[in-house]
């Protein structure tokens, strides 16, 4: 009986063993490739990626491949057969890919029957979140450039039974072998306040190179399957045990190997280039339990918790003030800060050297909350700060890092210097112009020019695109000018407007989405992108941009109101109600007050609730917001950049007009409050005004200077019969760089 059973087992199993040996050649491997075609992928090493694919198909010579090329949309989707490792057709398709626009990772479908998903990307998603399904295939993430989101790439592969291949660091044959053998990747841990374990020992620190911090440094615990990576500021934190060995590595840098002792809490590492004779430098320290507190612009803060570099000196540290001016007082007091020209000129300060070839590289000076004119690049263009009386200075603070400067818009790109004086309270204007309301008496003047609406863009880009009658020819011309205009925000906005005008919305969205790729941390440019997405009623994408701005700069109150309103406009009513509920009750973390936006919040929330139905959840909302409110006219202006100056003229059909101003000359105190509280908008509500046709004219001050990299845009929302069933809305987005002396951009009827 036993012999019969053995023979039966052998009869059935031996063919299966042979079948498994021939499985690779007889049963094609099913693979789906998601190929990121966003504009940032132009910088990748496509030859290394082709080398990887060549090795992959030698391992899986017979493969059914589905190729999906995507950016902000699915560009192409097709099936290709690879036989006997011949993937020439696939290679040909990949060589023809055009890289443009941002990337939307929500387009990556993981509910698939394929065995393997190869995801070629840098991990820097701009729109939409990647979502893995419960039954997703094995996901292999592949990158070949330095500017990557290594955390995303590693986690996506790790949690989907896959493997991450950094082609700048990995040996391709070893990576293919690991994929074939289903080698388990080391687990990366990222310590936060929420997941920190009080029973574990942690070490933390900053990893730097020869001149700056190093992001994406690999940190692994030797002989243990765990590690972490440094963030964009070079910071890391990892759980360890005494006796562990930490290995720090980055491509083209020498490895640092460090033994952890019981006493180690902080380990700072300076990596050196592989060709350098110097070994990495290591500094260990015992962490103090006392919070590191300090003062920034007169406010006591925990310096360990604010997330950016801060250096301060007070009056005592500045020396003999009667003999020094402010430039001499600052000289030699701040690390990484230097002066060009004479030491007595603070207008020539540089933080970490020149930052731009064509733009000013000097930091933004803010004295008692008021931004000062900035020095130009040339030595003869130094700003004069001699008006600052050294004897009145209480402290000087220098802020570095993305988080520190976003409140000040792109003006803070080279750092921010805050000067606080003991005369700050005396410098405010006593009689600032109030925001217009229903009770304000309007004084009319006579408008001299013709009443003619001209909302056409004065754009050379559009003029050139119009020369090509075919949309694809125009798009090819746009692509040919791309590399020459990477810093020109208006180029992408105006080319996008043209594609929308000729009814090519996909090209329009793709073109303007480049702003998210090229300026991923610049909140002013991201607002320009959001404004234009709203103008074209692409509310879901605008919502994503506003959420990103909140992630970058959570202390800007304006963005929460913008997000709530785009939820409403995009028919996500419950999300809008829930966010307005938090805003109106001042229950948003990171925001101290919404006082500067109180009037707008009230009007917007009331207007939202007036449209409610029985399915909305509106419990625990103050009854005040359920009362209806109506106005003949409501105009809401919002600007992309803090401290933007402009004037709006309201002109009736009799050519009588009044002006509402937003300038430092007329509204100094108001502009200061906006900067402190983090809002960049205002509203004007008018009732009982003369019926008939009205016009809006926008002007900029004579001192306005266009800036191709940091243009200032204004979004104007014009509501007529506000709050009534006949309410109408116009949305205009205006580039102040294109505004001439008189620019009547719209008309409406009261």
Radius of gyration: 30 Å
Assembly context of the chains:
single chain
- Bulk shape: globular
The count of helical stretches stands at: 19
Q: Termini separation (Å)?
A: 101 Å
**Strand element count:** 33
The order of strands across the largest sheet is: 3-2-1-4-5-6
Low-confidence segments = 5-26, 304-308, 353-360, 377-381, 424-439
Task: Report mean pLDDT, rounded to a whole number.
Answer: 81
Which class best fits the helix and strand makeup? Answer: alpha+beta
> Strand percentage, roughly?
15-25%
User: Share of helix among residues?
Assistant: 25-40%
The biggest beta sheet reads: 6 strands, mixed
Q: Can you put this structure into words, describing what you see?
A:
The strands form eight sheets. Strands 3-2-1-4-5-6 form a six-stranded mixed beta sheet. A five-stranded mixed beta sheet has the order 7-10-9-12-13, with helices on one face. Helix 3 (46-59) crosses helix 6, helix 11 packs antiparallel against helix 12 and helix 14 packs antiparallel against helix 15. The model is unreliable at 5-26, 304-308, 353-360, 377-381 and 424-439 (pLDDT under 50). The N and C termini lie far apart (101 Å). 26% of the residues lie in helices and 25% in strands. It is an alpha+beta fold and 750 residues long.
Brief synopsis:
26% of the residues lie in helices and 25% in strands. It contains 19 helices and 33 strands.
